[in-house]
């Protein structure tokens, strides 16, 4: 298996990112993660095409409230190793790697904070590893069952990714923000990917998302949704008021379908609401916990 490891110098001096990644080897891959603070763990699951950098403004208020903040980089993202074979990436494989990381870190009585593709991964882990997670925070995501309605914007995005080997990661993040995060921040999202081949993971996520009930991963997603519908663990749903990819109505529908409280709107924020309102989101989560 061909693997690319991002040179350290590409990830030095990132804006508003004073954290040091830690590393472990799982299934022959070096995986990176942040591990900040002490107390009950809060695990932040990033989405597409981001990495733990996404959580840099959210983590401090949660950490300072007395919690241990863990933010992994999936294989193919951030400081983690990046297999170059598009076919290597699958829903099951990402879940398995994250499950092994949680086991190695002995995560228990944790809060799962999920965003974008972090939803299918983190929510499935919350269902399949109930001894590890006691609380859930959901943002701009949900379990993908193959029955969910995808917006035209998302379908266009999937086609764009399929047809572009050198995915413009920074442009995608910029387009999902309500406010301009600035050139340095956009460059930080591009930094983990030194070559087009290193972007296989970023290309794979939209392509492996199940959009039909018989698609790979759909049955697992439905099982997660069915389990969450009867789940009694405390859950907070936050949703951006200006998400063009997953509008606020999607969050309302998710809460209704899974018997959750209505989503709490995050004002003046887009799909990457952590960029638009990171400190506010961190304070909301800390207060809720």
Describe the model.
It contains ten helices and ten strands. By secondary structure, it is an alpha/beta fold. Helix 2 packs across helix 3 and helix 4 packs across helix 7. The chain starts with a strand and ends with a helix. The model has no long low-confidence stretch (mean pLDDT 95). Strand 2 and strand 3 form a beta hairpin. The longest helix has 16 residues. An eight-stranded mixed sheet has the order 2-3-5-4-7-8-9-10, sandwiched between helices. A two-stranded antiparallel sheet has the order 1-6. The protein has one domain: Rossmann fold (3-Layer(aba) Sandwich), CATH 3.40.50. It is globular and about 45 Å long. Helices cover 36% and strands 18% of the residues.
């Amino acid at each position: 298996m061909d693997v690319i490891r991002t040179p350290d110098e590409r990830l030095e001096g990132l804006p508003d990112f004073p954290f040091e990644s830690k590393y472990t080897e799982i299934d022959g891959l070096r995986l990176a993660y942040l591990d900040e603070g002490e107390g009950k763990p809060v695990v932040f699951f990033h989405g597409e095409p981001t990495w733990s950098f996404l959580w840099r403004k959210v983590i401090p208020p949660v950490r300072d409230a007395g919690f241990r903040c863990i933010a992994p980089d999936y294989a193919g993202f951030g400081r983690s190793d990046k297999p170059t074979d598009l076919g290597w990436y699958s829903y099951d494989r990402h879940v398995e790697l994250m499950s092994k990381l949680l086991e190695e870190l002995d995560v228990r009585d944790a809060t799962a904070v999920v965003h974008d593709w972090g939803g299918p991964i983190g929510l499935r882990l919350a269902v399949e590893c109930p001894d590890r997670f006691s609380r859930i925070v959901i943002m701009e995501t949900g379990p993908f069952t193959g029955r969910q309605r995808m917006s035209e914007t998302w379908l266009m995005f999937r086609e764009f990714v399929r047809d572009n080997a050198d995915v413009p990661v920074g442009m995608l993040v910029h387009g999902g923000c309500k406010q301009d995060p600035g050139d340095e921040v956009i460059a930080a999202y591009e930094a983990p990917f030194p070559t087009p081949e290193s972007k296989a993971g970023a290309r794979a996520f939209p392509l492996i998302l199940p959009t039909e009930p018989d698609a790979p991963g759909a049955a697992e997603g439905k099982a997660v949704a069915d389990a969450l519908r009867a789940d009694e663990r405390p859950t907070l749903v936050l949703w951006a008021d200006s998400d063009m990819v997953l509008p606020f109505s999607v969050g309302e529908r998710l809460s209704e379908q899974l018997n959750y409280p209505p989503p709490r709107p995050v004002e003046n924020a887009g799909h990457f609401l952590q960029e638009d309102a990171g400190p506010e989101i961190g304070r909301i989560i800390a207060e809720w916990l």
